[in-house]
Amino acid sequence: MNYEGADKTLVCIDCKEEFTFTAGEQKFFTERGLMSPRRCPTCRRKRKAQKANEQFNNF
Ligand SMILES: [Zn+2]
Predict the structure, then answer these.
(1) How high is the pLDDT of residue 4?
(2) Do residues 20 and 6 make contact, with C-beta atoms less than 8 angstroms apart?
(3) What pLDDT was estimated at residue 8?
(4) How far is the CA of 49 from the centre of ligand 1 (A)?
(5) Ligand 1 centroid – CA 12 distance (Å)
(6) DSSP letters of the chain?
(7) Cα of 15 to ligand 1 centre, how many Å?
(8) Cα 53 to ligand 1 centroid, rounded to whole Å
(9) For residue range 2-56, what is the model confidence (pLDDT) as tens digits?
(10) CA–centroid distance, residue 3 to ligand 1 (Å)
């Protein structure tokens, strides 16, 4: 039997919106020893874009 676990609903610390932390994502994070995401995918993408921008400016 393939135990997949269950999806979790988390609240984003930035926009306070609920988002789904899927069982697959949980597995991915656990395997890499990462903490649960605290931001929704949208805010994560924004922050990543911001970071990339900073790096680009520093370069
Ligand atoms: Zn968010």
Answers:
(1) 63
(2) no
(3) 95
(4) 14
(5) 5
(6) -------EEEE-TTT--EEEE-HHHHHHHHHTTPPPP-S-HHHHHHHHHHHHHHHHHH-
(7) 4
(8) 19
(9) 556 899 999 999 999 999 999 999 999 999 999 999 999 999 999 999 989 888 7
(10) 29
How far apart CA 11 and CA 4 sit, in angstroms, is 22
pLDDT of residue 22: 95
Phi and psi at residue 20, in whole multiples of 5°? -95, 125
Angle ∠(12,14,18) on CA atoms, nearest 5: 25
**How many angstroms does the Cα of residue 2 sit away from the middle of ligand 1?**
31
Give me 56's structure tokens: 């680009």
Confidence label for 57 from pLDDT (cuts 50, 70 and 90): confident
In terms of Cα–Cα distance, which of 35, 55, 43 is closest to 16?
Answer: 43
Domain locations in the chain? 8-58
